[in-house]
Amino acid sequence: MNYHVLTLFPQMVLNGLHTSIIGRAEEKGLLHIEAIDIRDYAENKHMRVDDYPYGGGAGMVMQPGPVYGAYQALSDRLGKRPRVIYLTPQGRVFSQSLAEEYSKEEDLVFLCGHYEGIDERVLELIVTDYVSIGDYVLTGGELPAMVMIDCISRLVPGVLSNDVSAEFETFHDSLLEYPQYTRPETFMEKSVPEVLLSGHHGNIDKWRREQSVIRTAKFRPDLLPFADLSEKEKELLKT
Ligand code: ADE
Protein backbone atom coordinates (compact mmCIF):
# COMPACT_ATOMS: atom_id res chain seq x y z
CA MET A 1 0.00 0.00 0.00
CA ASN A 2 1.38 3.39 -0.99
CA TYR A 3 0.03 6.51 0.68
CA HIS A 4 0.71 9.92 -0.84
CA VAL A 5 -0.26 12.83 1.41
CA LEU A 6 -0.57 16.25 -0.23
CA THR A 7 -0.05 18.73 2.61
CA LEU A 8 1.40 22.06 3.72
CA PHE A 9 2.79 20.31 6.83
CA PRO A 10 4.74 17.25 5.64
CA GLN A 11 6.66 16.87 8.90
CA MET A 12 3.45 16.54 10.87
CA VAL A 13 2.41 13.55 8.80
CA LEU A 14 5.83 11.90 8.68
CA ASN A 15 6.65 12.37 12.38
CA GLY A 16 3.25 11.12 13.42
CA LEU A 17 3.26 7.93 11.41
CA HIS A 18 6.81 6.59 11.41
CA THR A 19 6.44 4.98 14.81
CA SER A 20 5.17 1.76 16.32
CA ILE A 21 3.21 -0.73 14.20
CA ILE A 22 3.01 1.55 11.16
CA GLY A 23 6.77 2.24 11.31
CA ARG A 24 7.54 -1.47 11.49
CA ALA A 25 5.23 -2.19 8.57
CA GLU A 26 7.11 0.43 6.56
CA GLU A 27 10.43 -1.19 7.43
CA LYS A 28 9.01 -4.54 6.28
CA GLY A 29 8.03 -2.91 2.98
CA LEU A 30 4.30 -3.50 3.48
CA LEU A 31 3.49 0.20 3.46
CA HIS A 32 5.05 3.33 2.10
CA ILE A 33 4.05 6.80 3.25
CA GLU A 34 5.21 9.88 1.37
CA ALA A 35 4.31 13.45 2.22
CA ILE A 36 4.27 15.84 -0.74
CA ASP A 37 4.71 19.51 0.18
CA ILE A 38 2.11 21.54 -1.72
CA ARG A 39 4.27 24.62 -1.15
CA ASP A 40 6.91 23.13 -3.48
CA TYR A 41 4.38 23.83 -6.26
CA ALA A 42 3.80 27.48 -5.34
CA GLU A 43 3.58 29.72 -8.39
CA ASN A 44 5.25 32.88 -7.04
CA LYS A 45 8.62 33.78 -5.58
CA HIS A 46 7.21 34.27 -2.08
CA MET A 47 6.02 30.63 -2.10
CA ARG A 48 2.51 31.71 -1.16
CA VAL A 49 -0.18 29.13 -1.70
CA ASP A 50 -3.25 30.91 -0.28
CA ASP A 51 -5.19 34.09 -1.01
CA TYR A 52 -8.29 36.02 0.05
CA PRO A 53 -11.69 34.53 -0.81
CA TYR A 54 -13.56 36.06 -3.75
CA GLY A 55 -16.76 37.59 -2.40
CA GLY A 56 -15.12 38.39 0.92
CA GLY A 57 -15.34 36.64 4.23
CA ALA A 58 -12.99 35.45 6.95
CA GLY A 59 -9.77 33.54 6.44
CA MET A 60 -7.74 32.47 3.45
CA VAL A 61 -8.36 29.92 0.72
CA MET A 62 -5.73 27.56 -0.72
CA GLN A 63 -5.16 28.38 -4.39
CA PRO A 64 -5.91 25.77 -7.05
CA GLY A 65 -2.59 25.96 -8.95
CA PRO A 66 -0.20 24.51 -6.36
CA VAL A 67 -2.62 21.71 -5.42
CA TYR A 68 -3.12 20.81 -9.07
CA GLY A 69 0.64 20.96 -9.72
CA ALA A 70 1.35 18.59 -6.83
CA TYR A 71 -1.37 16.20 -8.00
CA GLN A 72 -0.25 16.27 -11.63
CA ALA A 73 3.39 15.55 -10.79
CA LEU A 74 2.25 12.60 -8.68
CA SER A 75 -0.14 11.13 -11.23
CA ASP A 76 2.52 11.48 -13.97
CA ARG A 77 4.96 9.62 -11.74
CA LEU A 78 2.43 6.87 -10.96
CA GLY A 79 1.30 6.65 -14.59
CA LYS A 80 -2.36 6.68 -13.56
CA ARG A 81 -5.06 8.80 -11.97
CA PRO A 82 -5.14 7.52 -8.39
CA ARG A 83 -8.06 7.72 -5.97
CA VAL A 84 -7.85 11.14 -4.26
CA ILE A 85 -9.43 11.49 -0.81
CA TYR A 86 -10.15 15.04 0.31
CA LEU A 87 -10.45 15.34 4.09
CA THR A 88 -13.39 17.56 4.94
CA PRO A 89 -16.12 17.69 7.57
CA GLN A 90 -18.53 17.87 4.62
CA GLY A 91 -17.59 14.36 3.44
CA ARG A 92 -18.98 10.88 3.96
CA VAL A 93 -18.19 9.75 7.51
CA PHE A 94 -15.25 7.32 7.67
CA SER A 95 -16.04 3.84 8.97
CA GLN A 96 -14.49 0.40 9.37
CA SER A 97 -16.20 -0.78 6.18
CA LEU A 98 -14.78 2.15 4.19
CA ALA A 99 -11.35 1.31 5.67
CA GLU A 100 -11.77 -2.26 4.40
CA GLU A 101 -12.55 -0.97 0.92
CA TYR A 102 -9.54 1.38 0.89
CA SER A 103 -7.17 -1.33 2.20
CA LYS A 104 -7.53 -3.13 -1.14
CA GLU A 105 -6.13 -0.18 -3.15
CA GLU A 106 -2.51 -0.02 -4.28
CA ASP A 107 -2.19 3.79 -4.07
CA LEU A 108 -4.22 6.28 -2.04
CA VAL A 109 -3.80 10.05 -2.20
CA PHE A 110 -4.91 12.20 0.74
CA LEU A 111 -5.45 15.89 0.10
CA CYS A 112 -5.20 17.95 3.29
CA GLY A 113 -6.76 21.39 3.34
CA HIS A 114 -6.03 24.26 5.71
CA TYR A 115 -7.37 27.73 6.39
CA GLU A 116 -10.93 28.10 5.10
CA GLY A 117 -10.50 25.30 2.55
CA ILE A 118 -9.31 24.78 -1.01
CA ASP A 119 -10.51 26.51 -4.20
CA GLU A 120 -13.52 24.51 -5.38
CA ARG A 121 -12.33 24.19 -8.99
CA VAL A 122 -9.30 22.03 -8.22
CA LEU A 123 -11.43 19.82 -5.96
CA GLU A 124 -13.83 19.27 -8.87
CA LEU A 125 -10.91 18.34 -11.11
CA ILE A 126 -9.02 15.85 -8.93
CA VAL A 127 -11.01 14.63 -5.91
CA THR A 128 -12.71 11.23 -6.14
CA ASP A 129 -13.78 10.81 -2.48
CA TYR A 130 -14.86 13.39 0.14
CA VAL A 131 -14.32 11.93 3.60
CA SER A 132 -14.89 13.22 7.16
CA ILE A 133 -13.67 11.53 10.32
CA GLY A 134 -16.62 12.78 12.36
CA ASP A 135 -19.01 15.62 12.96
CA TYR A 136 -16.59 18.15 14.40
CA VAL A 137 -14.21 20.64 12.81
CA LEU A 138 -10.41 20.39 12.98
CA THR A 139 -7.83 22.94 11.82
CA GLY A 140 -6.66 20.84 8.88
CA GLY A 141 -6.80 17.53 7.10
CA GLU A 142 -3.52 16.10 8.42
CA LEU A 143 -4.89 14.49 11.59
CA PRO A 144 -7.84 12.98 9.72
CA ALA A 145 -5.44 11.60 7.07
CA MET A 146 -3.28 10.09 9.82
CA VAL A 147 -6.30 8.56 11.53
CA MET A 148 -7.38 6.99 8.25
CA ILE A 149 -3.88 5.75 7.38
CA ASP A 150 -3.56 4.11 10.80
CA CYS A 151 -6.94 2.42 10.48
CA ILE A 152 -6.47 1.26 6.87
CA SER A 153 -2.91 0.02 7.46
CA ARG A 154 -3.84 -2.46 10.15
CA LEU A 155 -6.08 -4.17 7.57
CA VAL A 156 -3.21 -4.63 5.10
CA PRO A 157 -2.13 -8.29 5.28
CA GLY A 158 1.01 -8.75 7.41
CA VAL A 159 0.83 -5.40 9.22
CA LEU A 160 -0.63 -6.84 12.42
CA SER A 161 1.51 -9.62 13.86
CA ASN A 162 -1.49 -11.92 13.98
CA ASP A 163 -3.70 -11.73 10.89
CA VAL A 164 -6.78 -12.97 12.71
CA SER A 165 -6.62 -10.14 15.23
CA ALA A 166 -8.34 -7.69 12.87
CA GLU A 167 -11.06 -10.26 12.28
CA PHE A 168 -12.74 -10.61 15.66
CA GLU A 169 -12.58 -7.07 16.90
CA THR A 170 -14.91 -4.17 17.45
CA PHE A 171 -17.23 -3.43 14.50
CA HIS A 172 -16.76 -6.90 13.06
CA ASP A 173 -20.34 -7.97 12.27
CA SER A 174 -21.47 -4.58 13.70
CA LEU A 175 -20.76 -5.73 17.26
CA LEU A 176 -18.37 -4.27 19.82
CA GLU A 177 -15.53 -6.47 21.02
CA TYR A 178 -15.87 -8.57 24.19
CA PRO A 179 -13.86 -7.51 27.29
CA GLN A 180 -10.27 -8.76 27.65
CA TYR A 181 -8.34 -9.79 30.79
CA THR A 182 -4.77 -10.69 31.56
CA ARG A 183 -2.72 -11.49 34.68
CA PRO A 184 -3.12 -11.14 37.61
CA GLU A 185 -6.16 -13.33 38.18
CA THR A 186 -7.38 -10.96 40.93
CA PHE A 187 -6.86 -7.19 40.84
CA MET A 188 -8.22 -4.87 43.57
CA GLU A 189 -10.52 -7.72 44.65
CA LYS A 190 -11.93 -8.06 41.12
CA SER A 191 -11.55 -11.53 39.58
CA VAL A 192 -11.24 -12.60 35.98
CA PRO A 193 -14.52 -14.26 34.85
CA GLU A 194 -14.38 -18.00 35.76
CA VAL A 195 -15.15 -19.20 32.24
CA LEU A 196 -11.94 -17.67 30.83
CA LEU A 197 -9.87 -19.81 33.22
CA SER A 198 -11.77 -23.01 32.36
CA GLY A 199 -9.88 -23.85 29.17
CA HIS A 200 -13.23 -24.85 27.61
CA HIS A 201 -13.07 -23.11 24.21
CA GLY A 202 -16.70 -23.73 23.35
CA ASN A 203 -17.88 -22.04 26.54
CA ILE A 204 -15.35 -19.22 26.15
CA ASP A 205 -16.54 -18.46 22.60
CA LYS A 206 -20.15 -18.52 23.77
CA TRP A 207 -19.41 -16.17 26.68
CA ARG A 208 -17.48 -13.76 24.45
CA ARG A 209 -20.24 -13.61 21.86
CA GLU A 210 -22.79 -12.95 24.62
CA GLN A 211 -20.61 -10.17 26.07
CA SER A 212 -20.27 -8.58 22.62
CA VAL A 213 -24.02 -8.52 22.19
CA ILE A 214 -24.65 -7.14 25.71
CA ARG A 215 -21.96 -4.47 25.29
CA THR A 216 -23.28 -3.34 21.95
CA ALA A 217 -26.79 -3.05 23.38
CA LYS A 218 -25.43 -1.02 26.28
CA PHE A 219 -22.95 1.32 24.56
CA ARG A 220 -23.93 1.39 20.86
CA PRO A 221 -27.55 0.30 20.46
CA ASP A 222 -27.54 2.12 17.08
CA LEU A 223 -25.33 -0.71 15.70
CA LEU A 224 -27.69 -3.55 16.66
CA PRO A 225 -29.99 -3.34 13.61
CA PHE A 226 -26.93 -4.17 11.44
CA ALA A 227 -25.79 -7.12 13.59
CA ASP A 228 -26.69 -10.67 12.67
CA LEU A 229 -28.32 -11.82 15.93
CA SER A 230 -29.83 -15.25 16.61
CA GLU A 231 -33.38 -15.51 17.93
CA LYS A 232 -31.91 -16.50 21.30
CA GLU A 233 -29.73 -13.38 21.35
CA LYS A 234 -32.69 -11.18 20.51
CA GLU A 235 -34.53 -12.78 23.44
CA LEU A 236 -31.54 -12.16 25.73
CA LEU A 237 -31.70 -8.45 24.93
CA LYS A 238 -35.38 -8.25 25.83
CA THR A 239 -34.66 -9.41 29.40
N1 ADE B 1 -10.96 18.79 8.29
C1 ADE B 1 -11.42 19.53 9.30
N2 ADE B 1 -12.26 18.82 10.06
C2 ADE B 1 -12.34 17.58 9.52
C3 ADE B 1 -13.05 16.39 9.83
N3 ADE B 1 -13.87 16.31 10.87
N4 ADE B 1 -12.87 15.32 9.04
C4 ADE B 1 -12.07 15.39 7.98
N5 ADE B 1 -11.38 16.47 7.61
C5 ADE B 1 -11.51 17.57 8.37
From TrEMBL:
Recorded catalytic reaction(s): these are: guanosine(37) in tRNA + S-adenosyl-L-methionine = N(1)-methylguanosine(37) in tRNA + S-adenosyl-L-homocysteine + H(+)
Q: Which residues form the tRNA methyltransferase TRMD/TRM10-type domain?
A: 1-224
Q: Which InterPro entries match?
A: Alpha/beta_knot_MTases, tRNA_m1G_MeTrfase_C_sf, tRNA_m1G_MeTrfase_TrmD, tRNA_m1G_MTases_N, tRNA_MeTrfase_TRMD/TRM10
Record localization: Cytoplasm
UniProt KW keywords = Cytoplasm, Methyltransferase, S-adenosyl-L-methionine, Transferase, tRNA processing
Provide the family line.
Answer: Belongs to the RNA methyltransferase TrmD family.
The name of this protein is: tRNA (guanine-N(1)-)-methyltransferase
* Organism in which the protein naturally occurs: Qiania dongpingensis
